[in-house]
Design a protein that fits this description.
Low-confidence stretches of chain B: 1-6
Number of strands of chain B: 2
Organism (chain B): Occultella gossypii
Mean pLDDT of chain A: 79
Mean pLDDT of chain B: 88
Number of domains of chain B: 1
Order of helices and strands of chain A: HHEHEEEEEHEEEEEEHEEHHEEEEH
Transmembrane segments (chain B): 32-53, 73-95, 127-153, 173-196, 203-223, 258-276
Number of domains of chain A: 2
Radius of gyration of chain B: 20 Å
CATH architecture of the largest domain in chain A: Clam
Pfam families (chain B): ABC2_membrane_2 (PF12679)
Oligomer: heterodimer
Structural class of chain A: alpha+beta
Low-confidence stretches of chain A: 71-79, 266-274
Strand order of the largest sheet of chain A: 7-8-9-10-11-1-2-3-4-5-6-12
Shape of chain B: globular
Largest sheet of chain B: 2 strands, antiparallel
Largest sheet of chain A: 12 strands, mixed
Keywords (chain B): Membrane, Transmembrane, Transmembrane helix
CATH class of the largest domain in chain A: Mainly Beta
Number of helices of chain B: 10
Protein name (chain B): ABC transporter permease
Order of helices and strands of chain B: HHHHHHHEEHHH
Strand content of chain A: 25-35%
């Protein structure tokens, strides 16, 4: 009798974890709605033919490329030019990001990339493009006619853009298949899988979750050859199909912010081209290697980057699970989702 | 449970118990000393920024410090950023660690249990008074921050993290939300403290244990190797209130935190109930 009483006092403490575990399991299990069967080509068409629709969504990007994570927002004192660009690209790839996308009427969009106590915003409203960085309290403004606009660097980090870039690259070297339906951001989606037909690439497969109803890409995951978990993944965590508040696309620079006006894009591109020469591409499909005539020597002299690279025949290698970068002894930079030997061969040609 | 079936008389008794508990808590010098220490942080910060010849530039000092000179309201928010990781939980550790263990070490726990209140009711009352302290603590930082900020810098338009500008009324609402988030963050810790307090008869030991736990949880939260554990740490969302300063507000971390803290309150409340219900009260 007394023992039973003692035990019953502890019952609630035992029940709480059970309830929590139960509700977590239930939430994870809530299955996707049944979608009609479709062939991979049909899903691809669904994806390509999707209409412009207003929506707002939160997204998350995670990457595990087998590289040490660089501390975010770190200032490298003597990094400039190419070295700074490489560090920035590494930071974007190796650290996790989350943010929101708002898409309104045609030519209205706002992207927010969150940092713990900061945010970067890109606002596109008709011809107006605003970029805001809360850490610097700095605003960049440009007037760009909608026709000749290319995605700003930050816009590359949305599931939509990433999926479009992947699809563009699909050719005969890729095998398409559709796996069991998945649920992403509360939406039932087709899981379109792109598998390279060649062994000469580090990429094992690319999976794109395509909304079964609207054809919107909801998640892109890239898995390295032989790995179980994706090395890179970007996807929506929640999605609202209602039109976002129109005020979100009206941006006025805040008081005290530094506003930089950027000149017309044509001039801008000219300057860009001089600084960053177009890379030469060798090979095709998954095996292609981009060769940049950059000053690779300057990059390796950066101590942090030198630490990440290892000496190999013919240069220094920055190796990740998905992409290899070879900085050749003659200063050229070779980039590709291919094994090191292929990069060395391309460098020798 | 006999205590619960004791209808209205017991309920008024519970109310009286809570009222007397709050009186004891807020008559203590220690409580006022802790609140005064908390209040000194926004004051110090605002005075230093005011007296310095150069206003802080963007990205300098603690988050939002550069906003302070535009709008005094941000003194309250910056002060909350500074106090949430250590100072605020320290005071909550002192109050929650003292709840049961303090009475036990003073030898007054027996007398509290002689009254027909029941152990469950006493635990509840003790927890509610700790919650009242959490409210008072974050409220103190917020209020002092508002007042000193408005006096030294005036109020005006404020810039959100997204670059949008809001007026004074909206700024008050946003800082109230931040205050609410911080208060909710402390509720889980208060429940952990209540449980630890039932384990020992030494008040100081319980306080120290709770304070150490706060630090340990935050250190674990820094280790990438334990990423799977992070969403379950009670400190996980402590500084996530930046999400309340975006346009529009991101509610995810606020609601996730509220759920997490509710889980901690339920689990450690139940543990405290189990321990206190079966404990031999000798002092």
């Amino acid at each position: 009798m007394f023992m039973a009483r003692t035990w019953s006092r502890w019952l609630p403490a035992a029940a709480v974890p059970l309830v929590v575990a139960g509700s977590v399991a239930f939430a994870a299990q809530a299955g996707a709605d049944e979608l009609p069967e479709r062939t991979p080509e049909d899903v691809l068409t669904l994806l390509a033919d999707r209409d412009h629709q207003p929506f707002s969504g939160e997204f998350e990007q995670t990457s595990d490329l087998g590289l040490p994570q660089l501390p975010g927002g770190m200032d490298l004192p003597d990094a400039d030019g190419d070295a700074a660009a490489v560090t920035a690209a590494l930071e974007a790839l190796t650290s996790d990001h989350s943010g929101r996308v708002f898409v309104g009427e045609q030519d209205q969009a706002r992207l927010q990339v969150f940092e713990s106590f900061g945010e970067r915003d890109v606002i596109v409203n008709g011809d107006e493009v605003w970029v805001y960085d809360s850490d610097e309290n700095a605003v960049t403004h440009a007037t760009v006619p909608a026709d000749d606009r290319t995605a700003t660097p930050d816009q590359r980090f949305t599931p939509d853009e990433v999926a479009d870039q992947v699809i563009e690259a699909v050719g005969p070297s890729t095998e398409l298949s559709v796996r069991e339906d998945v649920e992403v951001a509360g939406r039932a989606a087709y899981d379109l899988v792109l598998t390279p037909r060649t062994d000469a690439t580090l990429v094992g497969e690319v999976a794109i979750a395509v909304d079964g109803e609207t054809g919107q890409p909801l998640r892109v995951s890239v898995t390295a050859r032989g790995a179980d978990a994706p090395a890179f993944q970007i996807g929506y965590t929640s999605l609202d199909r209602g039109a976002p508040d129109a005020d979100l696309f009206e941006f006025t620079p805040p008081a005290g912010a530094e506003v930089e006006e950027i000149a017309a894009p044509a001039e801008d591109q000219g300057r860009d081209a001089a600084e960053h020469p177009e890379p030469t591409v060798v090979g095709s499909g998954w095996e292609s290697v981009a060769i940049l005539d950059a000053d690779g020597g300057g990059i390796t002299s950066e101590p942090l980057l030198a630490q990440l690279t290892t000496a190999v025949d013919g240069g220094r290698l920055l190796g990740t699970d998905l992409v290899n970068v070879l900085i050749a002894d003659d200063g050229r930079v070779l980039v590709g989702a291919v094994p090191l030997e292929r990069l060395q061969a391309a460098a020798a040609e | 449970m006999p205590a619960d079936s004791d209808t209205a008389r017991a309920r008024t008794h519970g109310g009286a118990l809570l009222a007397s508990e709050l009186r004891v808590l807020f008559r203590r010098w220690r409580t006022w000393a802790m609140l005064a220490a908390l209040a000194s942080i926004p004051v110090l910060m605002a005075v230093v920024v005011r007296l310095s010849s150069e206003p802080p530039g963007p990205g300098e000092g603690p988050p939002f410090l550069d906003q302070v000179t535009n709008n005094g309201m941000f003194v309250a928010i910056t002060a909350l950023v500074l106090t949430t990781p250590l100072f605020l939980p320290l005071t909550v550790a002192v109050v929650s660690g003292d709840t049961i263990a303090g009475e036990a070490s003073l030898g007054t726990l027996r007398y509290l249990l002689v009254a027909p209140a029941g152990r469950v009711r006493l635990l509840l009352v003790k927890y509610l008074s700790t919650v009242a302290f959490c409210l008072a603590a974050s409220g103190t930082v917020l209020l002092t921050g508002w007042v000193i900020g408005a006096v030294l810098f005036g109020t005006g338009e404020a810039t959100l993290l997204s670059g949008d500008t809001i007026g004074v009324g909206d700024a008050v609402v946003r800082s109230l939300l931040v205050g609410a988030h911080v208060t909710i963050c402390m509720l889980g810790l208060a429940a952990v403290g209540l449980f630890i307090s039932t384990l020992t008869d030494a008040g100081v030991g319980a306080m120290a244990a709770v304070a150490v736990l706060t630090i340990v949880a935050q250190v674990l939260g820094q280790l990438d190797q334990l990423a799977w554990l992070h969403p379950w740490l009670f400190t996980h969302h402590w500084l996530a209130f930046a999400d309340l300063l975006r346009e529009p507000v991101v509610w995810t971390s606020f609601t996730e935190n509220a759920l997490l803290q509710a889980g901690y309150v339920a689990f450690f409340g139940a543990l405290a109930h189990g321990r206190f219900g079966t404990k031999d009260v000798l002092s």
